[in-house]
Amino acid sequence: MISYRATDDLLKSAEITYDNMRSYYAHHSVDWEQAKILEQIQDLDNWDILLNGELIGVLRLSFDSDGCYLRDLQISASFQNRGIGAQALHESVRLARNLAATKLSLKVFKISPAYHLYKRQRFSVVSEDEKFYYMELKIT
Asked: What is the mean pLDDT of residues 116-139?
């Protein structure tokens, strides 16, 4: 069973992100390391994704007057392609709706297979640059 809890170990959370994103950082020559990720996530709304009580992923949100921003959704590699990411997106919409957000925005590397997940979940590309698609979902 999938469940969510407020993150209780930001270092472990940053490790999951670093492990998943390392190849994208290398591909784009982005100089990120786990300590930098930890610094960047301190002020976000951080959630652990659990499968039967085991930490398998992270969900990070931020909120402003424009709505909710999905800053990070990471599922550990051995648990990917099981529908957990789609469930986590539904949870992020629920959390955004609870705070009266009218849209959920994100950016995703163009080379990331997660792009296809977001498209299947009805996110639309609103702009792009050489590295990223910027996407959003209207929340009703």
From this structure: 96
